[in-house]
Design brief:
- The complex is a heterodimer of chains A (290) and B (349).
- With 290 residues, chain A is mainly alpha-helical.
- Chain A contains eleven helices and two strands; from the N terminus they run ααααββααααααα.
- Chain A has one domain.
- In chain A, strands 1-2 form a two-stranded antiparallel ribbon.
- In chain A, helix 1 runs parallel beside helix 5.
- The model of chain A has no long low-confidence stretch (mean pLDDT 85).
- Chain B has a single domain, classed as ABC transporter involved in vitamin B12 uptake, BtuC.
- In chain B, helix 2 runs antiparallel to helix 7 and helix 11 crosses helix 12.
- Chain B starts with 6 loop residues before the first helix and ends with a helix.
- Classes of the chains: A mainly alpha (290), B mainly alpha (349).
C-alpha cells in the first residue's frame, strides 16, 4: 500500500515538478509568477489534440508541433504584451499574466467548447508493470522518464551552453548582464519560450490521465505553484524536488487520511511553508533592503 | 475650492452644498429608477450593485492597502453559502444571516491576513490563489453544502415582507450597496483608511511611524472579506441557486478586472468599474445578437471556432482589457475621469 502510494505520488510529482520548473524559469528572470502558465500549457495540449485528431498527423508530429506552438506562444506573449509595460511593478506584471490566463482560456473554450476530449496517447494508462508489490502504469513510467530526461537536459543547458549561462547571468543581475553584452530582452523571450515548452510537455502528459477541456490546468497550476513554493521559487533543483515531495505528500494524505480533501493539501502546504520558511525548503533566505 | 482648512473638513463625507444637492438627486434617481426601467434592467442593476460591493471590498485590499488577492471568489462563496445555510438550516432572518455570513468571511479574511504579514507580491498572490481554490473544493466535497450539485436559496423576506421579484430585490440590494459605498468612503477618510494607504506606500515606513502592521493588515483583509461576503450573500438570492463551480478562479480574476478598470485606490472608480464591467459582462453574453458584429462572429465561429463556445469571447475581451489597461492606463476609468475633470477646469489652457 505504502509503496504503491509512493510510486504513483512520484509519477504525479514529476508532472508537478515540470510545471514548477516552467514557473521558476520565468520567475527567476522576470520576477513574476506566471499565472498564465497553466492556460499556455492547456492551449498547447489542445493544439496537439487538433493536429492529431482533426488533421490526422502522427503522434510524433503533433507532439513536436505542439511544442513549437508553445515556444512561439511564449515568445509572442512576452514580446507583444509583457515588454510593453513601462517600468512595471509586481502587481501590474501579475495582472498582465492573469490577463493572458483569461485570453487563452477564452480562446480555447471558444475554439473547442466545454466538451471533454481524449488525447490519444501511444502509451497506455491501463497496462501495468509490477515493481515489487506495487504496480505502475506505462503512462506513469513514461511521465517519470520524460520528466527526468528533461531535467537532465535543463541542467546541462544551464551548465554548458552559452545561452544557458547568459540566462543565469540575466537572472542574477540584468543590468550587469546587459553591460557584458548580453541581449537581455532576447534572453527574456527565450526564457518564456523554454518555460512555455516545458509547461506544454506537462500538459500533454497530464491530458491522458485527466480529461482534456479548458479547465485542464486550473488545478495543476496551483499544484505547480505549491511545488515551487515548497522547494523555493528561486532554485530549479528545489522546485523539482518540491514537485516530487508534493506528489508524495498528497498521495499519502489521500491514502491514509482523507481522499475527499486531498486537493486542499496543496493549499495547506503553501500556507505552512510561507508561514515558516517563506523562501522555500531548498533556497537561501533573502533579506529585503529598505 | 479644494483647499482644506481644518481636519474636520478633510474627513467630512460631502464637502459642499453642491455635492449635497447632487447626492440627494442621486438618491432620488436610484429610488425611482426601478419603476421606470424594464425588468431586465432592474435585474442588471441588482447585479451591478453586488459587483460594486465586491469591487470596493477588493479595492480596499488591493488599491488602498497594496495587498494582492486572487482568492476573493472564496470569500464570495463563503458569503453566499453562509447566508443560504444559516437561513435554511438555522432559520436566521435574512439580514442577520447576511451579516453573520459576512462576519464568517471576515474571520477567514483575518486568518488569510496572518500569512500575509510575512508575504508580499507574488507569494501573497499564490497563497490567496490557493485559498480561493481550497474553499470551493471543500464546499464541493461537503454533502452539507449540497456538494457539486449546489443548493437553492430559500425564499427571501425582509422584515416580514416577502421579496419575490427583481424590483423587491432591487430595494434590498441597492440600499445595502449604497450603505456599503458610503461606509467605505467614510472608512477611507479615517485613521484606519490612512493607515491602509501608508502601508501600501511603504509598509516599513508606516511601521516606523507607529502604524501597527499586524493589526491593520489583518484588518484590511477582514474588511475586504466582509464586503465580499455581503456581496456573496446578495448574489445567492440574485441567482436563486448556487453551486461551487460558480465561484471558480476565473471569478476572482473578474473581480480584479473590475478593480483595475475602475481604478486602484478609488471608491468612485470602483463604483464605475463595477457598473461598467457588469454591463459589459451581461452584454457580451449575448454578443451574437448584436446587429452587424453578431452575424460576422457567428459565421466566423462556424468556420473556425465553435458556436457553442462563442460566449467565452467575454473572457478574451476581459483579458485584453486587463492587459491593455495595465500597460496604457494603470489608473483605469478613475484616471480618465480625473484627466477629463482637469481638462474642463483649466479650459481653454
Amino acid at each position: 500500500m505504502f509503496l504503491q502510494l509512493l510510486l504513483s505520488g512520484i509519477a504525479f510529482g514529476s508532472l508537478y515538478a515540470l510545471i514548477a520548473l516552467a514557473m521558476v524559469i520565468i520567475y527567476k528572470t522576470s520576477e513574476v509568477p506566471n499565472f498564465g502558465q497553466g492556460e499556455m500549457a492547456m492551449l498547447s495540449t489542445f493544439v496537439a489534440f487538433m493536429l492529431l485528431d482533426t488533421y490526422g498527423h502522427s503522434f510524433f508530429v503533433s507532439f513536436l508541433g505542439a511544442l513549437v506552438f508553445a515556444a512561439l506562444l511564449g515568445v509572442f506573449l512576452e514580446f507583444v504584451f509583457l515588454r510593453r509595460a513601462k517600468d512595471p511593478n509586481i502587481l501590474s506584471l501579475i495582472l498582465i499574466t492573469l490577463g493572458f490566463e483569461m485570453i487563452l482560456y477564452g480562446v480555447a473554450s471558444w475554439k473547442w467548447g466545454a466538451d471533454q476530449r481524449d488525447l490519444s496517447f501511444p502509451v497506455s494508462d491501463f497496462d501495468l508493470v509490477n515493481i515489487g508489490p506495487a504496480v505502475i502504469s506505462y503512462l506513469n513510467l513514461a511521465t517519470l522518464l520524460v520528466a527526468l530526461v528533461l531535467m537532465v537536459l535543463l541542467f546541462l543547458f544551464f551548465r554548458y551552453t552559452k545561452v544557458g549561462i547568459a540566462m543565469k547571468a540575466t537572472q542574477q543581475n540584468p543590468m550587469a548582464a546587459r553591460i557584458n553584452g548580453i541581449r537581455v530582452n532576447r534572453i527574456l523571450s527565450v526564457t518564456w519560450a523554454m518555460s512555455s515548452t516545458i509547461g506544454a510537455m506537462a500538459g500533454m502528459l497530464l491530458a491522458p490521465v485527466a480529461t482534456l477541456d479548458p479547465n485542464l490546468m486550473l488545478e495543476p497550476l496551483l499544484k505547480g505553484f505549491a511545488s515551487a513554493v515548497l522547494g523555493g521559487m528561486t532554485t530549479l533543483v528545489g522546485a523539482a524536488l518540491g514537485g516530487y515531495m508534493l506528489g508524495i505528500i498528497e498521495n499519502l494524505f489521500g491514502g491514509y487520511v482523507s481522499l475527499e480533501f486531498k486537493s486542499i493539501v496543496a493549499f495547506g502546504i503553501i500556507v505552512l511553508v510561507l508561514c515558516f520558511r517563506p523562501s522555500g525548503l531548498f533556497a537561501k533566505h533573502y533579506v529585503r533592503k529598505v | 475650492m479644494d483647499m482644506k482648512r481644518d481636519y474636520y473638513e478633510d474627513i467630512q463625507l460631502l464637502d459642499s452644498k453642491v455635492l449635497w444637492f447632487w447626492f440627494l438627486m442621486l438618491v432620488a434617481a436610484l429610488a425611482t429608477f426601478p419603476f421606470i426601467a424594464p425588468t431586465y434592467y432592474v435585474y442588471m442593476a441588482n447585479y451591478m450593485a453586488i459587483n460594486v460591493i465586491v469591487t470596493i471590498g477588493l479595492n480596499i485590499l488591493v488599491g488602498y492597502t497594496g495587498q494582492i488577492s486572487l482568492g476573493h471568489a472564496g470569500f464570495f462563496a463563503i458569503g453566499a453559502y453562509g447566508t443560504v445555510m444559516l437561513m435554511s438550516l438555522l432559520h436566521f432572518p435574512f439580514l442577520l444571516a447576511l451579516v453573520a455570513a459576512a462576519l464568517i468571511a471576515a474571520f477567514f479574511g483575518f486568518i488569510l491576513g496572518l500569512p500575509a504579514l510575512r508575504l508580499e507580491g507574488p507569494y501573497l498572490a499564490i497563497a490567496t490563489l490557493g485559498f480561493g481554490m481550497a474553499i470551493t473544493q471543500v464546499i464541493g466535497r461537503w454533502e452539507l453544502f449540497g456538494g457539486r450539485m449546489g443548493v437553492e436559496a430559500p425564499a427571501l423576506s425582509f422584515f416580514g415582507i416577502p421579496v419575490m421579484t427583481d424590483l423587491g430585490r432591487y430595494f434590498v440590494t441597492a440600499t445595502i450597496a449604497f450603505i456599503m459605498v458610503l461606509g467605505a468612503r467614510n472608512l477611507m477618510k479615517t485613521r484606519v483608511g490612512r493607515a491602509f494607504i501608508a502601508i501600501r506606500d511603504s509598509d516599513i515606513a508606516a511601521e516606523t511611524m507607529g502604524v501597527n502592521l499586524v493589526y491593520y493588515k489583518t484588518l484590511a483583509f477582514a474588511v475586504s472579506a466582509f464586503y465580499t461576503g455581503i456581496a456573496g450573500g446578495l448574489f445567492a438570492f440574485l441567482l436563486g441557486f448556487i453551486s461551487p463551480s460558480t465561484f471558480n478562479f476565473i471569478l476572482s480574476i473578474y473581480f480584479l478586472a473590475f478593480v483595475i478598470v475602475g481604478g486602484l485606490g478609488s471608491i468612485f472608480g470602483s463604483v464605475m468599474g463595477g457598473i461598467v464591467m457588469t454591463w459589459l459582462l451581461l452584454e457580451l453574453d449575448k454578443i451574437q445578437e448584436l446587429p452587424l458584429i453578431g452575424g460576422m462572429l457567428i459565421s466566423f465561429s462556424e468556420n473556425f471556432m465553435t458556436v457553442a463556445g462563442l460566449p467565452n469571447i467575454s473572457s478574451i475581451i476581459f483579458g485584453l482589457i486587463i492587459v491593455l489597461l495595465v500597460i496604457f492606463e494603470p489608473l483605469g476609468l478613475y484616471g480618465f475621469w480625473i484627466r477629463t475633470k482637469i481638462y474642463w477646469k483649466t479650459w481653454p489652457f
